């Protein structure tokens, strides 16, 4: 399952991602926003992050789009267990999965075209988390979450 969310600045890119997923027959859940009316990105980041956290299927992930992808990335990463990565090319999409085991990718509706976004998503979906030395680093991220500082 792919959980999709955006604010107004990411709305159009989210809609084109949705159309493409639909054509490919990929299952998604759109949690909004549903128009160009101004909204606050942390509200949508939180909704998608909660869905991703609840979903125990390791192939499920989230896609969050705001103007730059930055606000969505910062907000989603406040939720324990979420590893949200701003991707801006195919390489960062691939290593977000291989090294960081990202469970959410974020993108900018004002910085990324629909064609680029679909390439990034394809690359992320075909990459595999490598584990090994990366596992220790990801465990350290979880330890930071537990410090509550
Ligand atoms: C909205 O204007 C914009 O600030 C927001 O979409 C996002 O880019 C924030 O990071």
Task: List the topology elements.
Blueprint: E1 2-6, H1 11-24, E2 28-30, H2 41-54, E3 61-66, H3 70-76, E4 84-86, H4 90-98, E5 104-108, H5 114-126, H6 133-147
Parallel strand pairs: 1-2, 1-3, 3-5, 4-5
Helix pairs in contact: 2-3, 4-5
The structure holds D-ribose.
D-ribose (RB5) is lined by residues 7, 9, 41, 66-68, 70-71.
Descriptive key words:
149 residues, Ribose 5-phosphate Isomerase B, Chain: A, 5 strands
Number of helices: 6
> Main beta sheet: strand number and arrangement?
5 strands, parallel
Distance between the termini: 32 Å
| Overall domain count | 1
Low-confidence stretches: none
Number of strands: 5
Oligomeric organization of the protein chains: single chain
Strand order of the largest sheet: 2-1-3-5-4
Question: From the 3D coordinates, which CATH architecture would you assign?
Answer: 3-Layer(aba) Sandwich
| CATH superfamily heading | Sugar-phosphate isomerase, RpiB/LacA/LacB
Give me the Rg, rounded. 14 Å
Descriptive report:
With 149 residues, the chain is of the alpha/beta class. It has a single domain (2-145), classed as Sugar-phosphate isomerase, RpiB/LacA/LacB (Ribose 5-phosphate Isomerase B, Chain: A). Helices cover 48% and strands 15% of the residues. It has six helices and five strands. It has helices at residues 11-24, 41-54, 70-76, 90-98, 114-126, 133-147; strands at residues 2-6, 28-30, 61-66, 84-86, 104-108. Strands 2-1-3-5-4 form a five-stranded parallel beta sheet, with helices on both faces. β4, α4 (90-98) and β5 form a beta-alpha-beta unit. α2 (41-54) packs across α3 (70-76) and α4 runs parallel beside α5. The longest helix has 15 residues, at 133-147. The mean pLDDT is 97. The structure holds D-ribose.
């Amino acid at each position: 399952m792919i959980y999709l969310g955006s604010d107004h600045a990411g709305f159009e890119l989210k809609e084109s991602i949705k159309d493409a997923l639909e054509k490919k027959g990929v299952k998604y859940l759109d949690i909004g926003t549903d128009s160009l009316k101004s909204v606050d990105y942390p509200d949508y980041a939180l909704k998608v992050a909660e869905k991703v956290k609840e979903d125990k299927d390791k192939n499920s992930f989230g896609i969050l789009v705001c103007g730059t992808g930055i606000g969505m990335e910062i907000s989603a990463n406040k939720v324990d267990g979420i590893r949200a990565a701003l991707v801006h090319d195919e390489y960062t999409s691939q290593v977000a999965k291989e090294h960081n085991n990202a469970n959410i990718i974020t993108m900018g509706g004002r910085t990324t075209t629909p064609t680029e976004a679909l390439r990034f998503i394809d690359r992320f979906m075909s990459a595999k988390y490598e584990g090994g030395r990366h596992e220790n680093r990801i465990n350290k991220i979880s330890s930071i979450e537990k410090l509550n500082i």
